[in-house]
Specification:
The protein is an alpha/beta fold. Helix content is about 30%, strand content about 25%.
């Protein structure tokens, strides 16, 4: 059996990936748990009965691993992924470090798996969670109807910024109820996020924020440069998950019932779409779920061949960890290396 290194096991994304491995029966002996600045003796639970030693990233020898999955920050990936690749470990990177590197394929499992064999550096990247949860429902739609334009409005939980952001939301909420000042708990967002909506996700790059720019770039890298994309991103006061309204304009006349059936037949996508009260899926409904949920599917009468839909997913699990796990399984089963 090939050995797998999971880098970033102490953060939420890496933890979710370990959970998926354990739930699907991956032996602990085949996994190296790795994270930065972990002193000797650090352990992490693997299921209910096993405690795994956590290796210090700075000292870990990637030559002992066949595949390395990086669930780390962009900065750590930029520094350590080349080291892993140089030691002949096949790398799956979950950060944005290689989004623009044309020698590193951007892969969504089930959409463009063939790109796993088309890498020059021994590295593949996965899109950001908000893009992965859009692309999977649209993968077969693009093949059938030739998507021309996407308008994407995302409502993102604070988990995108990690544990510190989740703690900040919790502390602000508590202080508001206690009528205490928030000045010491505005370090991550620099504004009040509790009971608020912030129309900025990432720093500004010209008129766009980094996440809006990333949605544009990543969609085009996977589906093709001919698709026009306009994205708007906002933070909402939720801990986990991403919701998105998506408007799709196609090159052919659209049958919404056919679109609904195509999405239902897409692995990893659940269509729960009833034109009644509560006939949709919300952020709270999908926490801990591995699938992407689609609701509010309808015709967009503002364009000639258009439709729109609402989709939600657990960004840590469905948006990132599940995609990385699916790619890992393809590599293990097909022996791509």
């Amino acid at each position: 059996m090939k050995k797998i290194a999971i880098v970033g096991v102490m953060n939420s994304k890496g933890r979710e990936l370990l959970n998926l491995l354990e739930e699907n029966g991956m032996p602990a002996d085949d996994i190296f748990a790795v994270d930065v600045d972990c002193p000797l003796g650090t352990q992490i639970s693997y299921g209910e009965d096993i405690d795994m030693d956590v290796y210090n990233l700075k000292d870990f020898d990637f030559g002992s691993a066949d595949i390395a999955v990086f669930a780390t920050s962009e900065e750590l990936s930029k520094h350590y992924v080349p080291r892993a690749a140089a030691r002949k470990a096949f790398v799956i990177d979950c950060s944005a470090a290689y989004t623009m590197d044309t020698d590193v394929p951007l892969v969504v499992a089930g959409l463009n798996d063939e790109k796993l064999t088309d890498t020059k550096k021994g590295i593949v990247a996965i899109p950001s969670p908000q893009v992965a949860q859009l692309l999977l429902p649209l993968s077969k739609i693009n093949a059938q109807y030739k998507i021309k334009r996407l308008v994407v409005n995302t409502y993102m939980a604070v988990s995108l910024y990690g544990h510190e952001a989740m703690d900040e939301l919790f502390n602000q909420t508590r202080k508001i109820f206690m009528n205490e000042p928030l000045v010491d708990d505005e370090e991550i967002f620099h504004k009040q996020i509790a009971f608020n909506i912030l129309p900025q996700v990432g720093e500004f790059i010209g008129d766009e924020t980094k996440q809006e720019w990333a949605i544009n770039v990543e969609i085009k890298r996977v589906l093709g440069d001919n698709i026009k994309v306009h994205a708007n991103c906002a933070f909402v006061p939720a801990f986990i998950g991403i919701g998105a309204f998506v408007n799709v304009e196609c090159g052919k006349e659209v049958d919404v019932d056919d679109v609904r059936n195509i999405m239902r037949d897409t692995k990893g996508v659940v269509v729960f779409d009833k034109q009644t009260d509560l006939g949709y899926v919300s952020l709270n409904d999908v926490q801990g779920e591995s699938d992407i949920y689609v609701s509010r599917l309808r015709q967009d009468v503002s364009v000639k061949n258009g439709f729109s839909f609402w989709c939600v997913a657990d960004d840590l699990r469905a948006g990132s960890a599940q995609n990385a796990y699916n790619l890992l399984q393809i590599l293990l089963n097909n022996k791509v290396n």
